[in-house]
Amino acid sequence: MSTDIYTQKAAEALETIRSKSPLIHNITNFVVMNNTANALLACGASPVMAHARTEVEEMAAIAGALVINIGTLNQKWIEAMISACRKANDMGVPVVFDPVGAGATKLRTETSMRLVSEQSIAVVRANASEAMAMTTQAGATKGVDSTHSVDQAAGAAREIARELRTVVAITGPEDLVTDGDTVLRVSGGHPLMGKVTGMGCTATALVGAFIAVEPDPMTATAGALAYLGLAGSKAALGCNGPGSFQVALLDALYNLRPEDLATCGAIIVG
Amino acid sequence: MSTDIYTQKAAEALETIRSKSPLIHNITNFVVMNNTANALLACGASPVMAHARTEVEEMAAIAGALVINIGTLNQKWIEAMISACRKANDMGVPVVFDPVGAGATKLRTETSMRLVSEQSIAVVRANASEAMAMTTQAGATKGVDSTHSVDQAAGAAREIARELRTVVAITGPEDLVTDGDTVLRVSGGHPLMGKVTGMGCTATALVGAFIAVEPDPMTATAGALAYLGLAGSKAALGCNGPGSFQVALLDALYNLRPEDLATCGAIIVG
Amino acid sequence: MSTDIYTQKAAEALETIRSKSPLIHNITNFVVMNNTANALLACGASPVMAHARTEVEEMAAIAGALVINIGTLNQKWIEAMISACRKANDMGVPVVFDPVGAGATKLRTETSMRLVSEQSIAVVRANASEAMAMTTQAGATKGVDSTHSVDQAAGAAREIARELRTVVAITGPEDLVTDGDTVLRVSGGHPLMGKVTGMGCTATALVGAFIAVEPDPMTATAGALAYLGLAGSKAALGCNGPGSFQVALLDALYNLRPEDLATCGAIIVG
Q1: I need a surface site. Which of A2, A202, B228, B270 has the fewest CB within 10 A?
Q2: ipTM of the predicted structure?
Q3: How far apart are CA A236 and CA C190, in angstroms?
């Protein structure tokens, strides 16, 4: 696919999300639940948060996508995440995973590695250090860090995707999306996004919305990131800091037109 | 009572809330806790969130109203909800219930039906599908959906209130409040309210604030909904999307004057 | 130290927070997690929320400060708080404690008293009634309430700090910070801060950020409160209510320059 095809398909996915309002089942952290729900609503999707062992399977089964985020986890939540994943896998519901804080504590690193190895995860969305923490080859993957060159980062991202056997999105000033072979680079966004909690979690949830309507994980992921990046760039215009940026971002996600996304040129192959 | 009496009494309740700051004990979901607390503060009430089995009875006993919301529940929370309800019932503290997601999973539907049948609930605030899910006569209550005529919806709402033996508020583009006999229709609000998470939960919490100072459940409920609807209409003026709408809504709840509510004409009998 | 030295040191602390981004480990309540994280980010710190028994020690050990807040607690969380405190004490990581709702229920009062007596707490940040609830001498400490004179309040605050054997910050229209001997009075802020949930929790978290870079608890605490008060005063200019105030506050925390803090004159000895 040429580059413009990716943004074109992202625009089509956005239109479909708005017309069909896919249900996105989130098992996510306490810090961002509200932002995540609002970002999904602004995009056009229907968010639901549910984490009880006794209902996650039922909820995952009727969802268009399942989003798992370990930002504030404990043992009970891990069990619910695994039950929900297994059910989603059985039902063909795509699972998107956000390994928040992998590398910071054993609990997070091990939970992340376990989920990715035992379950079928369509996309892992992480920052560079979290992605590296999930691999056994720290050496080979170190280059994904934003202090390295674009080519080094792309190579390292490929290594990570191959080891995790899934599509990996490593977000930062520029986002990389790869299945271990093709690498898509997604530009956009604004430095203020790093000053608002849960922006990465929002990205992950939006990948959930896009993958609910666009079956190709690479296309869905790059599309969601281009959409968030474009909204972020627009939101930053005329805002005064991270408070007003957050408000403007929800407005921008809501108001962004598919044709703006189709022509934004944010996705580049390679 | 004539129609104007309802908005007049709503205005008086709002004044009392602002002068007495009733304590509203919420056992609610993680997604909306912050919004709910802020809406109650903007209204003039004193919110408290507490869910531990070991403290809910003590908290419910000193509250002006107890608000139960099952948006993100699990077994432990259900037990705390029941303990708190029982204590509130013993102490004459009115209980308002929000069956978030009833119908979506067994856990939610059964918990909702159990709470309403075992405890004394003053008001159930729900959307149409949640309200229908709580009744055993799906057929008779189907008409409450907003796709049906006003008269069909009113008839179905009455059926639901009779079966649940409580005042029921079914919110949507137009809200219906009924005790199974009289039906009050409350207008106001704005479509953007459906694009912000937790608007229904905010409505339920505000019913808690009003019922803490206005003993008649019908009057308190219709008053709270008229107040929120009026604030929503005002907030929508000049906002750019769901982000700025949320901000403007809190400002509007805070700034709305009792005399504006008294004369808004939002409550109609029948 | 003269008064100007305190704001001068606050300004230096703010600069250090922005350049070093200390990791602040929060075990806090569900209502404010998002606000707390955003306030810490706006200040320049790196917030993390983690509450699982199996990871809190690891997280506390790598943090610049540990912030404990009992706003929505249960037995499991209490155990995690104690484990995290103990580890922080062992590692020399300062602990800041917010006894939300102490006095309202036994669980909260007893947990607060237990934490302060068993662990080494650098600073307790509370409102007057919470601080009084933690002491055994209700009589002696009653005067800390804002209905009493400045001198009575200062005397009562000193008593509380002596009994709790820690620095105590009692916030209200004017904040008092004392180690039982010196009393610092911090002015600033705006009445709208009482209409937004979690402002006290934000204050506590910011004390965590300041104490991570400024070892003297009195200086760090007064500095953090002066910073929040100054940002609150600025945020209130031109805002329309508690919704727009919250947004403006995050912007103000982000934009406030160290030189503004150095010269604000908000801290007075005595």
Answers
A1: A2
A2: 0.94
A3: 27
